[in-house]
Amino acid sequence: MSFSIYDASVPLFKRQLTALDTILDKAAAHAEARKIDPSVLLNARLFPDMFPLTRQVQIASDAAKGLTARLAGSEPPVFEDTEKTFPELKERIRKTVAYLDTIAAAKIEGSEQRQVKLKLGPNEMTFTGSDFLRNFALPNFYFHVTAAYAILRHNGVDIGKLDFLGGI
Predict the structure, then answer these.
(1) What is the CA radius of gyration of the chain?
(2) pTM here?
(3) CA 3, CA 153: separation in Å to the nearest integer?
(4) Cα–Cα distance between 12 and 160 in angstroms, integer?
(5) Is residue 162 exposed (0-12), middle (13-18) or buried (19+ Cβ within 10 Å)?
(6) Rounded to whole angstroms, how far apart are CA atoms 159 and 168?
(7) What is the pLDDT of residues 36-80, one digit of tens each?
(8) CA-CA distance, 54 to 59, in Å (whole number)?
(9) Fold type of domain 10-165
(10) Which of 65, 67, 87, 123 is the most exposed place for a label (fewest CB within 10 A)?
């Protein structure tokens, strides 16, 4: 049995987003138990020029649905970046996973050579599907999930490696 481009993307996104959802639960519980205004954690960042937790989650969501849609030959759904609470971020994750569930593996299989164009600011980048997956989308997704984890860990939320990995 071969390892497909679908197997290398959608299940990974779903697993990691589910782990992120659980981490957000732990962050909300941490804030409540310690009587910390949740906005302190939601707006926390590792360094002043980095995005806060809310934006890290939004970008991770965008990366997962963006890659999946582009490999399927469609446009990703647009979610407004208005989340300001833990429940709203969790709902965004739920909507992202629900979207991923609508994409059949057959829509992505064979997309390794599909041309993917991505506009980043004034620049447009062109990839093959497999290059987009390996060299841009997966690293970008994991960067933002890792940043979200690190922000919360740095702020004292009791999470560890197994939380990040999704409780293997």
Answers:
(1) 16
(2) 0.95
(3) 33
(4) 19
(5) exposed
(6) 14
(7) 999 999 999 999 999 999 999 999 999 999 999 999 999 999 999
(8) 9
(9) Four Helix Bundle (Hemerythrin (Met), subunit A) (1.20.120)
(10) 123
